[in-house]
């Protein structure tokens, strides 16, 4: 009895001490890390450029796994740096970003994910929490090349705080089953009516000719922006987020064209030409419906054709795909919404980059990144291992698992675009993929821009995301037939009364 | 301690301190005598201090316009501004109502089910069968909400889900389970039952084993059948356990499972599904309104506290033990 009691107590003490040791170690090791970092920074400062400069980048990860450091080591060698990258899965990047910000633990270089998160940080930027870059960029030969007009889109009160990551202005278009269309004698749709007819025929006319009613037209997902809805809205010439009516800026959902698009989707949905649960379908499920031969039309980034094809051909070797962009609405004009020229951007918090000297070193790194030599490592990997150069373009290896493991994540730290950083453009053996690249350029003649990009509204910064939820929900409810036009109008009124009117006023005042 | 040492009869300072010393010595003596027991609760106390009390310091930010780079010491004070915003926001009553509705479902629909299952299992004579059932119904507890919700999604979707396919075969209309506000609550509570009901039986089954067999014998002699034995012997014997668990459950009033509800939310059911937890997450972590979401969380905590105190009072009023 006594013995077992003693043992029990001993065990408890052991557990407790283990716990304490664990806690202790953690804080000790992080202290040590800090000291190391500080030590080497000082060393770097005093001995010139001999010691590699250490810093941390926080970036979003689009692959399931954290990449191997093979290519990063090459980059580090050339730029004489030692970089730690905090990879954060793209899905919960906002959480992690806000948590790091709230606890004051942002690293030296922070990627922001997109425009929406950038808007959230506007307050902090205005409060001077990030380094302003205008006065430094002159010193850097390569960073100077960044496009002026895109930079202007990222300015806050006329000042530049970030380096942008370029993206084609509009990649939106249609990917469809060419083999199905051929079976039914259909051409690529050039009007919204054609598109509707294709969705109908793919649903009702047995496009796969297996004698069964097992297909439908459009596969869509729970995303009104990067899914099919916003692209279709552009075909109807709906403004991009905001548009001008009678000299006043108004949000897109107050325009008739938006209502027309909703009616269009409502009809697609009630006829069963689109997946019935699209408002709760994830991107993976959406693409699966396309790959497994259930659906024949995918509206979104045309660049997806490559990965869709690779997976679909494994299921059905006879599959043929094609891409298409030009679809005109009832007005006879084609339009397509544009992003402001950047997909992501990197900023430098003053809390972690404490001196001008450190900032200059980090900028030096990004300046070096913008040379073809370094950027090709980041974007394509090592020549001969991850890619070959064909006709002055990069042809990635067919081992896409290897690319995912060692290269693709690093594409997330690109700065600029091929035009400015000089990296190879992609060479695509798969013809529709090559065509999609051409269509990105073709899209540039039909862009619908967002007029509020250079404008500022305090309410929009604070409540915009929450208010948008009201409209997003109402849009889905309208398409599903759960509310009618009056119901949608009520949602708009609700949006207005909760702060939307202020947004309208503020944007117009700053216009 | 100190409040006890202020009696009505005036005492000199020396007397007071002497009394204090005595008490302190007494306390130390008792601690020494039972040192093993105190040692054993130490980890618990440490846990609560570190993980439950220390973080409360952060509630300060709900009265501030918290800016991370200024910190708690540097941020401006705004008084009750965030609470005002919460109480005047049109969403407040919706969220409050939704939270209470789901809470009501938890108490009135979910809570009795583990008790009923335990009573039923108790009547099973075949031990092997009983054990088998018990083990099987524990299993869902170890699956994450993501898995439970995904399985439901696959079963209920209109695009080839088995439930809707079955309805179709039977010649019935398809039902849009996922995108219909009326189905949100039934689906929520069914999933809770699915995942937790088996696990919830553990404590009740343990309590039932502790019932004195003599009581059953006496009841049998008095002519009670099995149902009457259950009603008049088993249930009254585990009543105190039921009440303690009920109070604890009420204490978790507003812990309705953030993950679970968040995964179920979509455009069509937000007006019945948005609860405080999801609201705090969206406002705080996704939109970066730290102070406001701290205020919402604080409010939620206060409501929970009130509920526990009231429930405990009620339990005591009915001569039950309560939890403190």
From TrEMBL, chain A:
<protein>
    <submittedName>
        <fullName>Carbohydrate ABC transporter substrate-binding protein, CUT1 family</fullName>
    </submittedName>
</protein>
<feature type="region of interest" description="Disordered">
    <location>
        <begin position="29"/>
        <end position="51"/>
    </location>
</feature>
<keyword id="KW-0472">Membrane</keyword>
<dbReference type="InterPro" id="IPR050490">
    <property type="entry name" value="Bact_solute-bd_prot1"/>
</dbReference>
<keyword id="KW-1003">Cell membrane</keyword>
<keyword id="KW-0564">Palmitate</keyword>
<dbReference type="InterPro" id="IPR006059">
    <property type="entry name" value="SBP"/>
</dbReference>
<keyword id="KW-0449">Lipoprotein</keyword>
<feature type="signal peptide">
    <location>
        <begin position="1"/>
        <end position="22"/>
    </location>
</feature>
<dbReference type="Pfam" id="PF01547">
    <property type="entry name" value="SBP_bac_1"/>
</dbReference>
<keyword id="KW-0732">Signal</keyword>
TrEMBL record, chain B:
<dbReference type="InterPro" id="IPR035906">
    <property type="entry name" value="MetI-like_sf"/>
</dbReference>
<keyword id="KW-0472">Membrane</keyword>
<dbReference type="GO" id="GO:0005886">
    <property type="term" value="C:plasma membrane"/>
</dbReference>
<comment type="similarity">
    <text>Belongs to the binding-protein-dependent transport system permease family.</text>
</comment>
<feature type="transmembrane region" description="Helical">
    <location>
        <begin position="187"/>
        <end position="211"/>
    </location>
</feature>
<feature type="transmembrane region" description="Helical">
    <location>
        <begin position="36"/>
        <end position="54"/>
    </location>
</feature>
<feature type="transmembrane region" description="Helical">
    <location>
        <begin position="142"/>
        <end position="167"/>
    </location>
</feature>
<feature type="transmembrane region" description="Helical">
    <location>
        <begin position="100"/>
        <end position="121"/>
    </location>
</feature>
<keyword id="KW-0813">Transport</keyword>
<feature type="transmembrane region" description="Helical">
    <location>
        <begin position="231"/>
        <end position="251"/>
    </location>
</feature>
<protein>
    <submittedName>
        <fullName>Carbohydrate ABC transporter membrane protein 1, CUT1 family</fullName>
    </submittedName>
</protein>
<keyword id="KW-0812">Transmembrane</keyword>
<keyword id="KW-1133">Transmembrane helix</keyword>
<dbReference type="InterPro" id="IPR000515">
    <property type="entry name" value="MetI-like"/>
</dbReference>
<feature type="transmembrane region" description="Helical">
    <location>
        <begin position="290"/>
        <end position="311"/>
    </location>
</feature>
<feature type="domain" description="ABC transmembrane type-1">
    <location>
        <begin position="96"/>
        <end position="311"/>
    </location>
</feature>
<dbReference type="Pfam" id="PF00528">
    <property type="entry name" value="BPD_transp_1"/>
</dbReference>
<dbReference type="GO" id="GO:0055085">
    <property type="term" value="P:transmembrane transport"/>
</dbReference>
